[in-house]
Amino acid sequence: MLVYLSIIEDRDEKTKFEAIYYAYKGLMFYVANRILDNPQDAEDVVHQSFLKIIDLLENIATPQCPQTRSLVVTITERKALDVYRRRKRRTVLPIDEENMQTAVPTTIDGIAESSAIAQAIAALPPKYRALLLLKYDSGYSEKEVAHIMGMSEANVKKTIQRAKAKLQTYLEELEVEL
């Protein structure tokens, strides 16, 4: 709170901001967390929203009225959506070493075959490889894969279909029979 008040120079503006801060900070956190589903990101959004409110403080007539509440909620929603879109653009997949390990083949032929399959999977484009591993190795549903990758479910289905076709082509080139 002191950080915000140090930005504001006028005494009346400081009083107005304090009233807004105490009246709406909980609501702002709720709105941001509802959109982002992440408390840390929601706190960042609330901070960004308060900075924006400071810029608009001279346009706010009464700190606790429906118009001010609407303005505060709108600013918070917009900031949260910006963070959500940024986060969606750069989705990071967690590396789960447990799921990255493959089963140990029991025969010499099994070793050669699994090596060829691993080689074919490694040769796939990264997006195809990620989708196939999420779907078939990690066991996620297509809906879950779509959420993780930030794609539509239909796009996931079609891309997996293309990835399987490309994998089949690679396996045929390596003369691996399944």
Model description:
This protein has 178 residues and is mainly alpha-helical. The chain has nine helices and no strands. Helix 8 crosses helix 9. The longest helix is centred in the first third of the chain and has 26 residues. The protein is rod-shaped.
Order of helices and strands: HHHHHHHHH
Q: What is the typical, i.e. mean, pLDDT? A: 81
Q: Approximately what portion of the residues adopt beta-strand conformation?
A: under 5%
Radius of gyration: 26 Å
Distance between the termini: 65 Å
Number of strands: 0
Structural class assignment: mainly alpha
Shape: rod-shaped
* Count of helical stretches: 9
Topology:
Elements: H1 2-7, H2 11-36, H3 39-56, H4 66-89, H5 97-100, H6 108-123, H7 126-137, H8 142-149, H9 153-173
Q: Which properties best describe this structure?
A:
178 residues, mainly alpha
Brief summary:
76% of the residues lie in helices and 0% in strands. It is mostly helical and 178 residues long.
